[in-house]
Design a protein that fits this description.
81% helix, 196 residues, globular, single chain, mainly alpha
Length: 196
């Protein structure tokens, strides 16, 4: 009987994971979570509460960035093959992630007593909000009907997200950053210079 209950529970959990499996919707939900944390930070002067919010925001950002960089962006890159504007959007998104990673690393070395702690978090918040706006208004609508937004990709993202919730620092060194090809950009720039 217990085995049957465990199997039913596992099946229910898998169905729940599949139900949550539309990648773009998952990403937008994550965006809303961090924007709420940024807003809470702005509304409090309490250092303990600020520290708690920063810790939670960093955890959410690490998890979100990892599933984008490890799973969603590579799938989106496949879909964007040959589409210069979409490839440029992905390159820019990856660079914005790089900036976020730098700010997160600096914040993790600081405490609320540090003179620029709140300022650094506000810069992080503004950077992330800008990234969210561009992603939701430009990149994601282009990918709505693509393989990158499939249930299979969503399932993979959901499973990885559950793993990362236990250890947000377990993000892999991603290929996404390596795929930002300087050669492609240089060729594009030099060809645009020739046109002028």
């Amino acid at each position: 009987m217990r085995k049957k209950n465990r199997e039913e529970a596992r099946e229910t959990e898998q169905q729940t994971m599949v139900a949550e499996a539309k990648p773009i919707e998952m990403l937008k939900q994550d965006h809303e979570k961090v924007k709420e944390l940024f807003e809470r930070f702005e509304q409090t002067e309490d250092e303990d509460e600020q520290e708690e919010i920063v810790t939670q925001a960093i955890k959410e950002l690490k998890i979100h960035a990892a599933i984008e960089e490890e799973i969603f962006y590579p799938k989106a890159r496949e879909e964007a093959e040959g589409e210069e504007e979409q490839e440029d959007q992905l390159d820019e998104a990856i660079e914005e992630h790089h900036v976020v990673h730098l700010l997160v690393a600096e914040l993790e070395k600081m405490s609320p007593e540090d003179e620029r702690y709140a300022a650094k978090f506000c810069v992080l918040a503004e950077t992330v909000k800008h990234h969210i706006e561009e992603e939701e208004n430009e990149m994601l609508p282009e990918l709505e009907d693509s393989e990158a937004n499939s249930d299979a990709v969503g399932q993979e993202m959901t499973e990885r997200k559950h793993e990362l919730m236990a250890n947000p620092d377990d993000a892999k060194q991603t290929e996404a950053n390596k795929k930002t090809s300087g050669k492609k950009k240089t060729a594009h720039r030099s060809s645009s210079k020739r046109r002028h």
